[in-house]
Amino acid sequence: MNVSVDAHVNVLVTARLNLRELRLGDAAFILQLLNEDGFLRFIGDKGVRTLADAREYILKGPMDSYRRHGFGLYLTSLRDGTPIGICGLVKRATLPDVDVGFAFLTQHWSKGYASESAAAVLQRGRELGLGRIVAITSPENLGSMAVLAKIGLRLERSIQLTRDGPALNLFGPRPPPGRA
After folding, report:
1. Of 43, 50, 49, whose CA–CA distance to 90 is shortest?
2. What percent of the chain has a predicted confidence (pLDDT) above 90?
3. Residue 30 falls within a domain, yes or no?
4. pLDDT at 175
């Protein structure tokens, strides 16, 4: 019997969104997302300038993470299939814990999509038994900080991922009720 794998299988489905693994065919979307002003300002310049760069980003980032860790950043789309961003779990060499990451096209900000997808991803991480899951954000990114608070994370401290890197806010899980 011949079994084919559907490349559109969703990893997570929420009330309004589908999250699935990124594939090379998503390069045009990734090129657009990674060069938006909001991405460049709050996340940073990944040096993705061409479709070839975007395919390389997908291969060496999300696809490598799926293979090595069983999770990564997922394409986040509306239920009709329209891609609007990425959201998932990231294991960075410079951070001891797995972190929740997300980025959305500017026209999809302030609609609750980041909170909805990040909450689903955080729950998936717990189901995978990942233990402590954190998040990092630029201190200027008030929108992302609000999302992190909404999904149950709280500001712990300022960190730097590299010696010369910018200061970032580290968010971690809230302690159980009754504990400081």
Report:
1. 43
2. 87
3. yes
4. 75
As a whole number, mean pLDDT of residues 4-32 equals 87
* Number of domains present in the structure of the chain: 1
Residue 104 and residue 141: Cα distance in Å, rounded? 13
The answer to the question of residue 119 being in a domain is: yes
**Residue 146, in any domain of the structure:** no
The whole-model pTM stands at: 0.90
> Is the distance from CB of 141 to CB of 109 less than 8 angstroms?
no
User: Where residue 92 sits, what CATH number does that domain have?
Assistant: 3.40.630.30
Nearest to 121 by CA among 46, 57, 167, 65: 65
Read off φ and ψ for residue 173, nearest 5 degrees.
-65, 145
Q: What is the pLDDT of residue 179?
A: 58
Q: Domain range holding 96? A: 10-133
